[in-house]
Amino acid sequence: MLEIDAVFFDDRIEHWQISSLMTTKPILALITNGNLIYELDSTVVPLTKGDVLLILPGTVRTGYHESSAPHQKYAAIFHLILPPEHPFFHFTKGAGYRLFRPKGFEYLRQRFSALYRMWLSQSAFRDMTSVGILMEIVGMLMQELEQHDIPTHKAALSKTIEHYIVRHFKEEIRLQDLAQLVERTPNYVSTIFKETSGQTPIEFMHHIRITTARHLLLQTNMTITEVSDALGYCDPPYFNRMFKKIAGHAPSELIKQRKEQ
Question: What is the pTM of this model?
Answer without folding.
Answer: 0.60
